[in-house]
Amino acid sequence: MTLALGIDTGGTYTDAVLVDHATGEVLAAAKALTTRHDLSIGIGEAMVAVFEAEQRLSPEAVNLVALSTTLATNAIAEGQDSPVCLLLIGYDRELMEQYSFQQELVTDDVVYLRGGHDVLGNEVAPLDEDAAREAILARRDEVEAFAVSGYFGVRNPTHELRVRALVEELADLPVTCGHELTTRLNAVRRATTVALNARLIPLLRELIATVRGTLDEQAIAAPLMVVKGDGSLVRAEWAMQRPIETVLSGPAASAVGAWHLAGRRDVWVVDVGGTTTDIAALRDGQPRLNPEGARVGGWRTMVEAVDVHTTGLGGDSHVRFDRQGRLLIGPRRVVPLCLLASEHPEVIDELGRQAASPKREDVGQLRWHAQFVVSWPRRVNWLSDEDMALLRRLEAGPQSLALLTREVRYGWLLRRRIEELEARRVVQRAGFTPTDALHVLGRFQRWNAEASRRGAELLTAQAGLPVEALCEQVVQGVSDRVATELVSKVLEDEVGPPDWEREPTAAALLNRALNISRDGDLNCELTLRRPLVAIGAPVEAYMPRVAEQLHTELIIPPHAEVANAVGAVAGGVIQRLRVLISPLDGGERFRLHLPDGVHDFADLEQAVHYAQQVMSARAEALARQAGAGQVEVQMARADRQVKVAAGWGQEIFLGAELIFTAVGRPSPARR
Questions:
Q1: Beta-carbon contacts of residue 611 (< 8 Å; ≥ 6 apart)
Q2: Which of 201, 237, 251, 338 has the highest local Cβ count within 10 Å?
Q3: pTM of the full structure
Q4: Alpha-helical regions (H) of 305-394
């Protein structure tokens, strides 16, 4: 038996599964809380738990380890910095500044170098190697990585390759070229992508090192692979060079895991996690990719990744009432009261004190009941004296937000300061969540249900509802939000993104179709034509109502709660290479744009034949480097032609794109 260990680090939980790689059978599964300040801690706890769940299996027997990680996505979204230098070849500095393109370049350390090529790959100016040497030497002790992008580097990468060689010669630091990550034009976005990649290299290297240390502690000598954003796998060594390709690794793994567990090739996949809900489409068993490139944290990249719709809604979403008495769920993630009380039982007494005399509190103060502030276990610098005083107080344990704001004259200023510290991940908030509602209703029992009930009782003081009715409303609210987001995703793909707030008529029809509103004489229905695969824990509480609202089939496969970890080991190795052929001299010659430079031919088919020979071998070699065993390579060709005039039957050749796809299964071996 080939034993595979799949690991997924989500926003709330880290999952681990043991899978028979040959048959796909899930042999054991376990969960641990994600330790966001150090992901390796949660990974280690999940690994220990999964082998405890199936003691007949030994860590030494593992042949393959695959990791799905949120590191790249979170690092970009949260602005985690590693100092990098971006070397731009042939870019017009004045133009970049005039149109504020420089703001899209991720780093302030940008060096403009003379050189570059035109759209056909012809050199327009020689590379200024002296300036490149000077920039590299001046920064080699100040940055952790370099990024290189030529304005038309995808049409002729020779200048990028030369600057890369200079970095390797003079600095011995990680360096990435734009043409290695994409073959598409749009020089600004390509520069953004390569700069993000450089910034992520030190972070992913650190994670891989700590994960390997954890594997060594468990006596696991199997190779480590990482899930890319398109759902395929690459060796950890590859991922450390191109970490940007692991963006949206988690949603991609969930889509692959849903296909593996449900066995359905054309479905909508809804992954309800602790922090977010991700919606993606499976078409012919493959996650549908976003042709425009993944967007993360306000940055639009050129990385092909799963086309996922993410919303801040999950089991750990904060449940509260606004000043108008409306129930709000999310998008802020908080620690559920049941989990907080399982680690800090003293919060139950504080919840009891808050419940003892709620009538004596004004309405504004009631809003802060059932909320606590907890410190992150991480070292933080550059805090004010007031912030440090708060952190010292939190060392004694969670502090009631209502109590903290009562103790100062201007409570609203303290609350704003706490929100800023939350954004910087210095402190985190705990409060009532959908997970707490399920604990009260007895539909999910993992932690302290008494804390959940006491939190619900405090919320009922604002809502005037029985506790069970409030919790049912929370669960129904999650279902309604998921259904709304699913409809939004389908409409976005087929028509355009809906704006429910600015389109009251459309919103009214949606509410009637989903049975959110039962007023009025008009009724309507919506039908989702493809089945719905629900994964995550516990989707049984939320998704039956969603399927009923959308009149579609619901599939909750076995092991749905760990589908992401299953998807981590269920994927294959896929490498895609794209090359272009451009006409020269009115079609008299043809230029082939390859990763090592340009090649000219007198005949189009000669160019295609040469590309097929060179690139098929290159794609196979890349797939093997990425960790594949037996590899198959296929080529797809797309010619661009236009007719000269109607009825003449003549066509002008504008160019061709050749796509080489190498596919193989991961090759289990020993490290």
A1: 579, 581, 592, 594, 658
A2: 251
A3: 0.87
A4: 337-343, 346-356, 363-366, 385-394
The percent of residues above 70 in pLDDT, for the chain, comes to: 96
Q: Is 259 exposed, middle or buried (0-12, 13-18, 19+ CB in 10 A)?
A: buried
Residue 389, C-beta contacts closer than 8 angstroms, at least 6 positions apart: none
Burial of residue 630, with CB atoms counted within 10 A of its CB: 0-12 exposed, 13-18 middle, 19 or more buried: exposed
Scored b (16 or more CB within 10 A) or e, 497-522 reads ebeeeeeeeebbebbbbbebeeeeee
- C-alpha distances out from residue 326 to 279, 320, 322, 370, 477, Å: 26, 8, 6, 17, 11
Tell me the per-residue pLDDT of 620-629, one tens digit each, with 9 for 90 and over.
999 999 999 8
Chain-centroid distance, C-alpha 485: 18
Report the interhelical angle of 434-441 vs 467-494 (nearest 10°): 130
Contacts of 464 (CB under 8 A, 6+ apart): none
Q: What share of the chain is helix, strand, coil (3-state, %, to 5)?
A: 40, 25, 35
* C-alpha to C-alpha distance for 223 and 66, rounded to whole angstroms: 8
Region at 219 (left for phi over 0; alpha for psi -120 to 50; beta for the rest): left
Task: Label the pairing between strands 145-150 and 175-177.
Answer: parallel
Q: How far apart are the first and last CA of the chain?
A: 18
> Which residue do the tokens 């880290």 mark?
14
Say which residues have a Cβ less than 8 Å from residue 422's Cβ, sequence separation at least 6: 428, 429
Distance CA 164, CA 293 (A): 25
Which residue type, as a one-letter code, is found at position 373?
V
Cis peptide before 377 (omega within 30 of 0): no
Cα separation, 157 vs 118, in Å, equals 11
Give the pLDDT confidence score for residue 118 in this predicted structure: 95
Q: How far is CA 61 from CA 50, 53, 92, 470, 670, in A?
A: 14, 15, 56, 49, 10
The reported pLDDT for the residue numbered 126 is 97
Contact 350, 401 (CB under 8 A): no
Whole-number Å distance between alpha carbons of 273 and 15: 12
pLDDT at 203: 87
Q: Is 215 helix (H, G, I), strand (E, B) or coil?
A: helix
Residues 6+ apart with CB under 8 A from 455: 337, 351, 370, 431, 432, 436
Residues in the chain: 671
Closest CA to 53 of 668, 562, 567: 562
- What are the strands of the beta sheet with 427-431, ordered from one edge? 335-336, 427-431, 372-375, 399-400
Start-end of H helices in 171-282: 178-181, 187-217, 236-241, 249-262
Distance separating alpha carbons of residues 59 and 295, to the nearest angstrom: 38
Candidates 246, 289, 296, 253; CA nearest to 271 is 253
Give the position of tokens 């107080």: 393
| Tens of pLDDT, residues 372-382 | 999 877 666 67
What residues form DSSP beta bridges with 154? none
Cα–chain center distance at 575: 20
pLDDT of residue 380: 63
Segments of the chain scoring below 50 in pLDDT: 360
